[in-house]
Amino acid sequence: MESGLETACRICGLDVGEVRFDDHGLALFVICGCCGTESGVGDDTVVQARRLRARWLDAGSVWFEPKGRPADWELREQLRNVPPSWR
Questions:
Q1: E strands, 1-87, where?
Q2: CB–CB of 12/35 below 8 Å?
Q3: pLDDT at residue number 42
Q4: CA nearest to 61, candidates 9, 5, 1, 6
Q5: What is the DSSP letter of 66?
Q6: Model pTM?
């Protein structure tokens, strides 16, 4: 993450380098290929982000775009990318 830009999904931690929130914390409404969450929709607060993450995990951590899932995908490793203030 450079300056205040957020590139990792606040829900699942997928980070493909696409900016999801700008330097001012404003959402760019990017849909995550992993969990399907759109930045700025339901991930505005830590409580909301934790609820969405729990719901996604409870549902089996299914990829929104299955073709985008790497063969060597590791859920725990990806979750480490969730910005610390959103865990």
A1: none
A2: yes
A3: 87
A4: 9
A5: G
A6: 0.90
CA–CA gap between residue 48 and residue 58 (Å, rounded): 15
Both tokens assigned to 63: 């990829």
Report DSSP letters for 1-37, one per residue: --TT-B-B-TTT--BSS--SB-TTS-B--PBPTTT-P
Residues of the chain under the 70 pLDDT cut: 1-3
CA-to-CA distance for 37 and 32, rounded, in angstroms? 5
pLDDT at 3: 64
Q: Which amino acid is at 74?
A: E
Q: What is the DSSP letter of 34?
A: T
What's the Cα-to-Cα distance from 10 to each of 16, 17, 71, rounded to whole Å?
Answer: 13, 13, 22
Closest to 10 (Cα-Cα) out of 24, 23, 35 = 35
